[in-house]
């Protein structure tokens, strides 16, 4: 599933390539990826210029038009959603939407599993549709995050994945953050000192900044706006490396399941407390 760094890369490229351009046409091959009807979606955004792109956690919100008459299209890529442009690309059966702008190749939305959604929402920054989602992981202040997390008795791995606490982290970057902070994934936040939790948050933000610079991580389907896979996979310290030696100490990385999600950690660098 695309996480914050992957979504951030898509959003930056969308804005960099399409800002100020007017959407001329929206081709729909599968209406099931739209939150509203095809007619309502076209009426809201076709003929309007792209005036803003905002990311919150794993969500992108594209604003078409200005001020009171603006329309906001929220994009959630979920597991296999992709937004990209490619010269001379022939859309396959998994391309469900194509956006046409005057000074760009067609912009395609492709989704093998069809779990992603593009939904008209009521606000560009804080739509009611994601009122249940916590603050963005890259922007949350420590005191706010600490208040939401520090008293909890569930495994820290599960709580870092909880988008209601802070939005954006997924399985890849949680494993990486906990490794860098030296925290075992089963540790309860209530058992950790404030300075350790402060380091967990810092490491999480550091990992995501580095992943953004490398275009995100690709294991299966994710590609960036230009159809290229992310390059962060080669930087991963633990995620996807269960049974392999730790790159810091040489111990064999272990893999367990926590709350239905796989977790890889180093038993030496991340001792259980």
Give descriptors for this structure.
273 residues; alpha+beta; N-terminal domain of MutM-like DNA repair proteins; Helicase, Ruva Protein, domain 3; 2 domains; four-stranded antiparallel β-sheet; 6 helices; 19% strand; elongated
Detailed description of the structure:
This protein has 273 residues and is an alpha+beta fold. Helix content is 25%, strand content 19%. The mean pLDDT is 93.
Oligomer: single chain
CATH class of the largest domain: Alpha Beta
By CATH, the superfamily of the largest domain comes out as MutM-like, N-terminal
Poorly predicted regions are none
Strand content: 15-25%
CATH architecture of the largest domain: Alpha-Beta Barrel
Q: Helical stretch count?
A: 6
What's the count of strands? 10
Task: State Rg.
Answer: 20 Å
């Amino acid at each position: 599933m695309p996480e914050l760094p992957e979504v951030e890369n898509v959003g930056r490229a969308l804005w960099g390539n399409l800002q100020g351009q007017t959407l001329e046409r929206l081709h729909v091959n599968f209406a099931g990826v739209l939150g509203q009807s095809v007619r309502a979606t076209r009426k809201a955004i076709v003929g309007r210029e792209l005036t803003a792109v905002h990311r919150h956690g794993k969500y992108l919100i594209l604003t078409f038009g200005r001020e009171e008459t603006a329309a906001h299209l929220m994009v959630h890529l979920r597991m296999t959603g992709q937004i990209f442009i490619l010269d001379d690309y022939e859309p396959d059966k998994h391309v469900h939407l194509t956006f046409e702008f005057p000074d760009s190749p067609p912009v395609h939305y492709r989704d093998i599993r069809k779990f992603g959604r593009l939904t008209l929402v009521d606000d560009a920054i804080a739509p009611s549709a994601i009122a249940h989602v916590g603050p963005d992981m890259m922007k949350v202040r420590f005191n706010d995050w600490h208040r939401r997390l520090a008293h909890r008795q569930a495994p820290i791995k599960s709580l870092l994945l909880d988008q209601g606490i802070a939005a954006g982290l997924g399985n890849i970057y949680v494993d990486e953050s906990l490794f860098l902070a030296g925290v075992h994934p089963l540790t309860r936040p209530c058992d950790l000192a404030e300075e350790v939790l402060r380091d967990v948050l810092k490491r999480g933000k550091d990992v995501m900044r580095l992943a953004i610079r490398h275009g995100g991580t690709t294991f299966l389907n994710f590609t960036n706006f230009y159809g290229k896979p992310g390059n962060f996979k080669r930087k991963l310290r633990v995620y996807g490396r269960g049974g392999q030696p730790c790159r810091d100490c040489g111990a064999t990385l272990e893999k367990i399941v926590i709350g239905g999600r796989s977790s890889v950690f180093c038993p030496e660098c991340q001792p259980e407390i």
